[in-house]
Amino acid sequence: MRINRFRSKNLSVFLTAAWLFFCSAYIIEAEPTPGGNIIGFVFAEDGITPVAGAVVKMKNVRTAEEFTSFPTDELGVFRLSGLPEGVYVMGVEYEGGAFNVPNPVGIKAGTTAKISLALKPGVQQDEQKKKKKRGGLIAFLSSPVGIAVIIATSALIVYTVWTLTKEEEASPYR
Question: pTM for the full model?
Fold first, then answer.
């Protein structure tokens, strides 16, 4: 009985090509570059459609030095080589707009980092607007931390009133 593991010939071709692509950085590069490398894909919002012509920019957080890739090919592939070791913030520019990657990327000398990016417009900005709308004193007081503050303040007031109204023995010095 024959078991058909791949339902699509295209899927097996794609997986083989992806595996060769990620291994090619080690096969093609004869001598190591002095810094680190990053290689990856840029996809549209759906996470499947490759974006051609996008330019990936990386900026070193410590030195503010900026590196720019060549435009991505029809598969959405980009590569940056010779990056000094450090932490970088990333951005992608193409005709559909400019996008920032929310998480920093660490680059280590002598290694190649691999990343896939899906460009989703306005996700972070919409979340920030919602947080600003929900803000304020009432929102804070209705949160778990706000409730804890109310309880602690109430307990402090009750304890203070109790200690001030408690009868004490008459002091000979008063």
Answer: 0.52
